[in-house]
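User: My collaborator sent over this chain with a note saying "see what the structure looks like." That's all I know about it. Can you take a look?
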Amino acid sequence: MKLVTIMLIDRKSIPNLREELKNKKIVFTNGCFDILHVGHVRYLTASKNFGDVLIVGLNTDESVKKLKGESRPINNQDDRAEVLLGLKAVDYVIFFGENTAENLIAELKPNVYVKGGDYTLDTLPEAKIVQSYGGHVELVNLVAGKSTTNIIEKISAH
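Assistant: Without extra context I'll predict from the sequence alone. Here is the result:
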């Protein structure tokens, strides 16, 4: 069983983590992952398949509010991290509070950066950073109709 305290990485520990994982192909993705659903699980599983280790950058509660509105997140960042770490595909979680994961990617320098197919290389702000150090960007198709927003709307309608 995974231990949350070990797999939840503090940003100050990134240099140590990079050294520990230097012989592994590191995959990174990021998001809010508020109400986990099958689309998230499929996306994270597909992401892990691009390498050996999957690190998830998780938006802090404050950054989710900025991105999604005052009523979000539904689940706090610690709960969201623990749920993510309970998935087979996820090896590490790192909180970040910026609007994009650009700074976190510059620190981590993952071999592969994965985002949903709703982005393109031109609309993905992190792509230039990944490409600048020789990393690779992968776009994964989303599961149609599966989103936290759709779940919230369905609950609100009842």
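A starting point for your reply to your collaborator: Residues 58 and 95 are 5 Å apart (CA to CA).
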